[in-house]
Amino acid sequence: MDIRPNHTIYINNVNDKIKKEELKRSLYALFSQFGQVIEIVALKTMKMRGQAFVVFKELSSATNALRQLQGFPFYSKPMRIQYAKTDSDIISKVKGTFADKDKKKEKKKKAQELAAANALKKPQQGSSNQPVSATQSLSTPDNPPNNILFLNNLPEETNEMMLSMLFNQFPGFKEVRLVPGRHDIAFVEFKNEEMAGTAKDALQGFKITSSNAMKITYAKK
After folding, report:
1. Between 160-167 and 20-31, two packed helices, what is the crossing angle to 10 degrees?
2. Which of these, 49, 57, 142, 151, could form a disulfide with 16 (CB 3.0-4.6 Å)?
3. What H or E segment, with its residue span, contains residue 21?
4. Percent of the chain scored above 90 by pLDDT?
5. Is the pTM of this model over 0.70?
6. b/e for 91-122, b at 16 or more Cβ within 10 A?
7. Which of 215, 76, 32, 184 is nearest to 9 (CA)?
8. pLDDT 10s digits, 137-196
9. C-alpha closest to that of 152 among 175, 180, 186
């Protein structure tokens, strides 16, 4: 009997030699391409080894992730994915009125914090309040098209496997090259400029963590 679709997907055949924190970060990087990930559960107990749960905010995100990543080679082992048998506790809570009350309280608290922050931001006397020019506000200027991409603004925990999993979904992917002594930048090589451009457009601004939006430009020739 088929398990009905829900927000939580169950993954097994996960490489159990990977440390728990690295595993959760890599799962987040991989699955958050399909939508907002609320929670990842990966336990190292004997009963739960080689398994994980990923909870999405939207049901459609869970469905897309299941279809697209079925059999994906995650740390050299093909993932087996299905819908979890029941909603996770966190989704059950979101569906109830309890969560709505929590959200209202949180919204009110954030509004108060924002008002306090804005009060502190009042310009000091004599300070220049000139508007930022269009060129200043633009993101990193790009170079002419190249088959090698330059990534920056990467989080500290970035590793080669994490970036490979993101980019090898695109045709023509060749390799990821990290820069020794620098965690925030990396290079990704593709077979040609067009293939590199497709990956660049698709993953521009992708958040590997909630606070780090990846910036991608063509590498200098």
Report:
1. 20
2. 49
3. helix 20-31
4. 31
5. no
6. beebeeeeeeeeeeeeeeeeeeeeeeeeeeee
7. 32
8. 344 578 899 999 999 999 887 888 888 888 888 889 999 998 888 888 999 999 999 999
9. 186
Would you give the DSSP letter of residue 35?
S
From the list 80, 62, 48, the residue with the least C-alpha distance to 8 is: 62
Task: Give the other-Cβ count within 10 Å of 53's Cβ.
Answer: 17
Tokens of 16: 């159990």
Whole-angstrom Cα distance, residue 121 to residue 115?
10
d(CA 141, CA 136): 10
Question: Is residue 49 very low, low, confident or very high in pLDDT (cuts 50, 70, 90)?
Answer: confident
Classify residue 77 as exposed, middle or buried by CB count within 10 Å of its CB (0-12, 13-18, 19+): middle
